[in-house]
Design brief:
Elements lengths: L2 E5 L2 E3 L5 E8 L8 E6 L5 E7 L6 E3 L7 E6 L4 E6 L8 E7 L2 E2 L3 E5 L2
Parallel strand pairs: 2-11
Antiparallel strand pairs: 1-3, 3-8, 4-5, 4-9, 5-6, 7-8, 9-10, 9-11
Length: 112
C-alpha cells in the first residue's frame, strides 16, 4: 500500500528557505517517478517539480525554476524539495505524489 507523509512546512519570510520531506512506504522510491505539487487557497492544483526514477532527470515549473530543487535519499526512501528565495506566491499546501496518490500535504506560508 502506497503511503506518503510530507513534513517541513511552516511560516517563512519572503526570501527565506524551507526544505520539505516526503517519507514514502509501500514501494521503492529510487525506481519511481515522483513529483511535488501544490495548491494555493482558491486555486487549482499546480505541478511544481518531477524527479524521474529511471533517468534521475528533474523537471521544474517555470515559476520555481532556479529556486527549488527536487531530490531523494534512496536509503531513507525519502523525497525532498529544497525551496529557496521564497515568494508570497509560493504560499500553498505542498504534496508529494506518485501516480494518482498524494500525501496529506504540508502547509507553506510565505509572509512578512
Amino acid at each position: 500500500q502506497v503511503q506518503l507523509v510530507e513534513s517541513g512546512g511552516g511560516l517563512v519570510q519572503p526570501g527565506g528557505s524551507l526544505r520539505l520531506s516526503c517519507v514514502a512506504s509501500g514501494f521503492t522510491l529510487s525506481y519511481s517517478t515522483m513529483s511535488w505539487v501544490r495548491q494555493a487557497p482558491g486555486k487549482e492544483l499546480e505541478w511544481v517539480a518531477t524527479l524521474f526514477g529511471s533517468t534521475n532527470t528533474r523537471n521544474y515549473a517555470d515559476s520555481v525554476k532556479g529556486r527549488f530543487t527536487i531530490s531523494r535519499d534512496n536509503a531513507k526512501n525519502t523525497l525532498y524539495l529544497q525551496m529557496n528565495s521564497l515568494k508570497s506566491d509560493d504560499t500553498a499546501v505542498y504534496y508529494c505524489s506518485i501516480g494518482n496518490s498524494r500525501g496529506q500535504g504540508t502547509q507553506v506560508t510565505v509572509s512578512s
